[in-house]
Specification:
The protein is mainly α and 198 residues long. Helix 1 runs antiparallel to helix 2 and helix 4 crosses helix 5.
Length: 198
C-alpha cells in the first residue's frame, strides 16, 4: 500500500524480490502472542486444580510468568524503536483516506441534519455512491449539480461536511478519531506505561 516504510534494521531482504523488505521482527512479535497465550493457559490450568490457599503446584508457575515478562519487555522495546524510526507516507495515506467512499456516512448524517429521516438519508447516500462509482469519482469530486440530482437538501456546505479532515475531527467520543480524542488516548497510554515502569 506504500503507507509506511519500515527501517532497514528491522527488516530482511527477500530471497526472490530484491526490492522487497520483509517485516520479520513484526512477524516474530505477532508469533509471540501464541507463546504468551500458551503461558496463560498453562497458568490457568495449574490454578484450576488448587483446592485452597498455597499448594506446591504453584512452583510450576515461574517459567510461564518469567517467560511472559521477558517477551513483554523485549516486545515493547522493539516496537518503540520501530515506531520511532518508521517513515510515514502522508500523501499516500491522504489519498487512500478518500478511497472506498469513507465519508458516505458523513453524507447520510448531513442529510439527516437537513431534516430527512436517517432511513431516507441512507437510501439517497447509497444512490449517490453508486452514481459516483459509475462516474469513477470520489464524493468530493462530484459537482453541486450532481449532488442536487439526488436531493435538493444538499447545498454548497456539503463539501465542508464531507471533507476527510472534518470527518475525522467530528468523531470526538471516547476512542474516536478526532485529534483531541487521539491525544487523550496517547496521554492515557503514557500514564499506563509510566505506571508499569517500562
Amino acid at each position: 500500500f506504500s503507507f509506511i516504510e519500515l527501517p532497514d534494521e528491522f527488516t530482511t531482504g527477500s530471497s526472490i524480490m530484491p526490492q522487497k523488505k520483509n517485516p520479520d521482527l513484526l512477524e516474530l512479535i505477532r508469533g509471540k502472542c501464541g507463546s504468551v497465550y500458551g503461558n496463560l493457559i498453562s497458568l490457568l490450568t495449574i490454578l484450576k486444580g488448587l483446592p485452597l490457599s498455597y499448594n506446591r503446584d504453584l512452583q510450576e508457575d515461574k517459567t510461564q510468568i518469567f517467560d511472559t515478562i521477558y517477551n513483554y519487555k523485549n516486545t515493547v522495546k522493539i516496537i518503540d524503536r520501530i515506531v520511532e524510526n518508521v517513515t510515514v507516507n502522508r500523501k499516500r495515506l491522504s489519498e487512500a483516506a478518500l478511497d472506498n467512499y469513507s465519508t458516505a456516512t458523513d453524507l447520510a448524517d448531513y442529510l439527516t441534519m437537513k431534516g430527512l429521516p436517517f432511513r431516507e438519508s441512507h437510501n439517497i447516500t447509497g444512490k449517490i455512491v453508486l452514481y459516483a462509482i459509475k462516474e469513477k469519482k470520489n464524493l468530493n469530486e462530484l459537482t453541486l449539480n450532481e449532488f442536487k440530482k439526488f436531493s435538493d437538501k444538499i447545498s454548497e456546505d456539503i463539501y465542508e461536511f464531507i471533507d476527510i479532515n472534518n470527518s475525522i475531527n467530528r468523531k470526538k467520543s471516547y476512542g474516536g478519531t478526532a485529534r483531541v480524542s487521539v491525544e487523550k488516548q496517547i496521554e492515557s497510554g503514557w500514564k499506563f506505561v509510566n505506571a508499569q515502569n517500562c
